[in-house]
Amino acid sequence: MEIISSSRIKQAKEAYASMMGANGFVSDEKRKMFNTWQKRSKGYQFTSTNTPTDIGKIELSGTAKMFLGFKFNGAQPLDKFTFSINEELLIEDGNPIVFDTSTNFFDEYYEYLRFLTGKDTIKLTYKGAGQDVQIEFYYI
């Protein structure tokens, strides 16, 4: 079941309130633990080419523990991409328009859960029609 955004905000407020100390403040240790498990994102923009091209080095934070998913913006119907994490081929010759959130108003990103080590190799090759494309990666 997908949790809608207002529920996520409510859950975050409840979690934060449960960490409050007697003095109404959250300890630095509890704050750090809470912040460690918050979703983060990293975006990349590139210009597609008519041959499959590596978009460059994709680096997430060294503290990243789990890859949550990604979304495209600016993809065209005939574009293709290949995606791997740590040499594991996850998507081969995928159509990025399927993962474009500009037409999907219900999901913030497309889930593709994978555990991370903090020293991960993430590769994306993309073939398009010369347009600018954005991709956003989500992780914890």
Summary tags:
single chain, 140 residues, alpha+beta, Jelly Rolls, 2 domains, four-stranded antiparallel β-sheet, 8 strands
Give a summary of the structure in a few sentences.
This protein has 140 residues and is α+β, with helices and mostly antiparallel strands.
Mind explaining what this structure looks like?
With 140 residues, the chain is of the alpha+beta class. It is built from two helices and eight strands. Helix content is 16%, strand content 36%. It has two domains: 1-38; 40-139, Sandwich (Jelly Rolls), CATH 2.60.120. The mean pLDDT is 85. The protein has helices at 5-18, 28-36; strands at 40-47, 53-54, 66-73, 80-85, 88-94, 110-115, 122-127, 132-139.
Give the terminus-to-terminus CA distance: 20 Å
3D shape: elongated
Q: What is the share of helical residues? A: 10-25%
Q: What's the architecture of the largest domain, going by CATH?
A: Sandwich
Tally the helices: 2
The total number of structural domains is 2
CATH topology of the largest domain: Jelly Rolls
CATH class designation of the largest domain: Mainly Beta
What is the element string, with H for helices and E for strands?
Answer: HHEEEEEEEE
Main sheet strand line-up: 1-8-3-6
Strand content: 35-45%
Q: Could you tell me the number of beta strands?
A: 8
